[in-house]
């Protein structure tokens, strides 16, 4: 899937980033690993090579908030491999022992979780333009959920998601896609440092999640790899949440009819909605209203069915070249061009692109996502 492509993964010495680097290598990518702790970084590279002996890698160590580190990451990628196709901005911190309510913590979180992402992305930009590459940023479920113990971390992740939407819109004309993955409660050293580490407290945390468990790094990393791939070529400006559902008439009837059997298999439900669920369209008001209702039902069903191990998600296509849209659009090239010009990626989507997302969301690679909406819309929702 990533043969002859070059992937940068910041924060890849442990946790989600370490697993993501390994999965990109599994898909035959050349990987630039980054971490602040040189010993852990070298260990991560060694473990990657144990899984994939023929993998091509290079390591860069240093504080991610320093401009010098950004430049060394880029120069190492170009000097070693000659190109950059994917940037995974995964490095991040919570309070790192600082007063979580203090301004020092705020500045630290903003420097590491936001400024560094902007800096590394801009440093990579000339090379991403050449390859029509993609950027994936690691956010958090706390970007839209109140956590009294981590206020500055949550604020920084909300800022990161908003930056990602702006970057997606700004870079779309160059064929560059920008998306976020927002993990929930994941079994990593990061969680044990910034949240409850004791078994009893960790169990209490997990019980707040509709799926009744913490996620694992592999479940998040699989989403990252998919978002970065060509199978996700019509997705930009989206936040894909893999949080176990922490946030969350025919369709309802069919879902309920299938429920006894889905309980037996711990299956999942995919509802196909529309980008119009969140947008005003004067020509299709009732259609848009029905899709908004479907999205809201998805949230309720995800919460209700999670204790049975059943996942429920939405896939929301934008303007897609199908018979459905042909019935409702002019066939004149000039009018079609006028419509596609408002889409940041400047084209209609293809059924295959929507189908790839549906297949992925239904797969075990997406096993910690429920109650979410996966947009496949060319970035239409980020247009001002």
Automatic annotation (TrEMBL):
Which InterPro entries does this entry report, sorted A to Z?
NAD(P)-bd_dom_sf, Sc_DH/Rdtase_CS, SDR_fam
- In the record, what lineage is assigned to the organism producing the protein? Eukaryota, Metazoa, Ecdysozoa, Nematoda, Chromadorea
**Would the keyword Oxidoreductase be found if you checked this record's keyword annotation?**
yes
Keyword Transmembrane appears in the UniProt entry = no
List where the protein spans the membrane: none
> Would you tell me the protein name for this molecule?
Dehydrogenase
Keywords from the named record? Oxidoreductase
Q: Recorded GO terms, molecular function?
A: oxidoreductase activity
Q: Which Pfam family, any one, appears in the UniProt record?
A: adh_short_C2
Give the source's domain of life in one word.
Answer: Eukaryota
